[in-house]
Amino acid sequence: MEIEKLYEMLKKTQEEKGYFFSKDKDRVSELLAALLTNKERYGYMACPCRLASEDRDKDKDIICPCVYRTPDVEEYGSCYCNLYVSEEWNEEKIPHDYVPERRPPEKMWS
Hints:
Blueprint: H1 3-15, E1 20-21, H2 25-42, H3 56-59, H4 69-76, E2 84-85, H5 87-90, H6 105-108
Antiparallel strand pairs: 1-2
């Protein structure tokens, strides 16, 4: 699947849920390309901003959109990668604060 097709598919399904792509198109394209690379490499679209274990069960929390996206966007207006953001974040109505890693260390190093 090419980047543009993935963009259109995810845009449609995620905007309905209130999640928008960052207006930084270059960043979004880089992240989508990395998702496609991870899908080819692991068989699933692991978060490109985290180290995948190559074990789908261990990585199920970081398969994009990861389980941390909702609390990240609710609290910071953006997910950890800055791929998915709120409308307010894109419109610069809220600060673009650093989004800390929510994934527990034991999941990262197991």
